[in-house]
Write a structure and sequence with these properties.
About 40% of the residues lie in helices and about 10% in strands. The chain is mainly α. The protein starts with 15 loop residues before the first helix and ends in an 8-residue tail after the last helix.
């Protein structure tokens, strides 16, 4: 199976109309799934997925109820993990300013829940296997 990834930024986190316009353009250009990491702007992406009968992936919580049959799953941020980390550092007097990056290994985000009508148990098993390999360092995820 060939998979192509595209990155596009809406330039805003607060405008659903921009999200809708960007998503409609991407779906019309052949995108099958759009990962939504755009807060309120993502509501437009979700609406476009329903209109085009395409798929999207939610963020920041369980968004499946917004587009049943179109929301493959979610990738919620684990803000609680970041807050507890910082509180612990303040308590231990080790806190320093700066940017922190919390991935799967650090429990900075999670995967799912998934729409079980779209994602099979075999897919979930494969996803969990890949997740464990990322956590173990066997698969390196690069960000640029």
């Amino acid at each position: 199976t060939n998979v192509r990834f595209f990155t596009r930024f809406a330039g805003t986190f607060s405008d659903a109309q921009v999200g809708y316009a960007v998503a409609m353009e991407e779906y019309n250009n052949g995108a099958d799934v759009i990962y939504n990491a755009a807060s309120k702007t993502g509501l437009g992406i979700i609406e476009a997925s329903k209109i085009t009968n395409k798929m999207t992936i939610g963020t920041s919580g369980d968004q499946r109820y917004l587009a049943p049959g179109h929301m493959v799953g979610n990738r919620p941020k684990k803000v609680d993990t970041a807050v507890l980390l910082l509180i612990g550092q303040v308590k231990e007097n080790t806190f320093t300013t700066g940017t922190r990056s919390l991935g799967l290994k650090e429990d900075g985000f999670s995967l799912g829940p998934f729409d079980e009508t779209l994602v099979t148990p075999a897919m979930l098993k494969r996803l969990n296997d890949l997740k464990q390999k990322i956590i173990a360092g066997e698969i390196i995820v690069k960000s640029e």
